[in-house]
Amino acid sequence: MWTALLLILAVAGFVIYNTFIIVEMREKVIVERFGKYHDTLDPGFHFIIPFVDRVAYRHETREQVLDVPHQKCITKDNIEVDVDGIVYLKVMDAYKASYGINDYRLAAVNLAQTTMRSEVGKITLDDTFSERDSMNEAIVEELDKASDPWGVKVLRYELKDIQPSQDIVLTMEQQMEAERDKRAEITKSSGERDAQINTSEGEREASILMSEGRRQQRINEAEGEARETELLAEATANGIERVADAISQPGGSLAVKMRLTEQFIDRLGEVVDGANVSVLPMEAANLKSFFEGASEVTNPVRDA
Question: For residues 86 and 70, what is the distance between their CA atoms, to the nearest angstrom?
Answer without folding.
Answer: 11
